[in-house]
Automatic annotation (TrEMBL):
Keywords: Hydrolase, Membrane, Transmembrane, Transmembrane helix. This is Metal-dependent hydrolase. The chain crosses the membrane at residues 74-92, 104-123, 143-162. It comes from Aeromonas bivalvium. Pfam families: YdjM (PF04307). GO terms for molecular function: hydrolase activity. InterPro entries: YdjM (IPR016956), YdjM-like (IPR007404). The keyword Transmembrane helix applies. The lineage of its organism: Bacteria, Pseudomonadati, Pseudomonadota, Gammaproteobacteria, Aeromonadales.
Amino acid sequence: MTAQGHLLFSVTCALLAHKLPLTPALADANLGQTMLAALATSLLPDLDHPKSVLGQKVRWISVPLSRLFGHRGFTHSLLAVALCAWGLGSNAMTDLMPVAVKDALILGYLSHLLGDWLTPAGIPLLWPIKQRFRLPGWPLRSGGAMETGFCTLSLLIAGYWAY
């Protein structure tokens, strides 16, 4: 999925998480704050690709990550999500931000993984096991009209339903 697709899809996921009360904190949170936090981390898994939007900004992190794990490796796994959640739940972070913001940051990261799970290439959810997981029979290729249409339509539906 492209950066544009991930950004649109993170807002969709934030709307759905708010409406479905994914967590109590997200249900009661300011929706604008939730969407901004989800947007902030929606591109983070692609930090392992030096030519990604984020990778170009912080090549000093992106290049070593790419060499160590390749694209759609460690950063696209449940282990990476668990490490992020652990870091956000640490005592040092407890007083820095509300629980709803922490939940939304994790939500944005997860929205990226979900978006890439919808593509034929899939993601290695159980990294370091190399098996890739994807939605069977779902031909959502990165870029192009189909991705843009899917992301836009899902955002419109989620927005309509949330309001």
